Predict the 3D structure of the following.
Amino acid sequence: MVASDRFFLKIERIIKDENIPEKEKEKIIKSSDLKLINSLANKELSISETAEELALDAMEILQKDEIFSDDIDEAQKLVFKSLKMDPDCLWAYEPLIWLTFQKPVRMQMIERGIKIGEKKFGGEFEKMWEGEFYQKVSTRPYIRLLNMKLSEHWKILEVTKGIETGEKILRLNPNDNLGARDILQLMYLFSNRLDDFYTIWEKYKDDYSAAHYYNEALYWYMVNGDSEDADIAMLEALEFNPWVIDFLTRKEKLSDYDDDFSAYDPREFEGAIVYSQIALKAWWKVVGIQKWLKSFY
């Protein structure tokens, strides 16, 4: 993620550079000459651009396969240096939040970063780029912070606020490469907003995920109870990932497993864990559903 963000951030800098003729910019970008792009983009960096690079260095450290205490210390130093140079460096808020473990402070950092993002990317910018936000690389930390906020709302069942955040994410970035729709769908189901659920589920009907199949099964059970529609949806979900049901029925416990998967197959056991981490509270709220679930064993 960091390498991609860094590359496209450099492209943005070249595009904004008034000293490079437009035709020359086109040639440079089309050529994908990394050496040339790096030399032009890193030439005479502004204070804010230097702060961005430091923040990306910190993120790069935190995304290593193995992280040691020295890595944490180094990442913290880079983040603090970045924010000292530019207190409004949005890129620094991602690693800062990764390094913040106290929940109240974490949410404060998320909110602070979002306010910076709203200041930078609200108003006319939002109107111009709505629906294509993630294509503008400088907006990516803002969208990711909104996604963090959505997850935090869901963890503590602030569903009304969470739905507002989730709807905003999909309005700005309907491509939703971060998967905000999965949690938003669960929030709709949790709130019994079944029509809203189905509207968004239908919009992403070609999804390939446990959330897509199991959320649909939960929806049909909530609509029709123990019915043919619900049974068909559940059988399709089980075919996609047969392990999720063990968590839904409490046969398996999430506490018995590692909860951090940076990469996983949605059809395998790890995919069942990842889905269950966000979904159990929506399933367990529905009265009578356990009897129906156990009928599939």
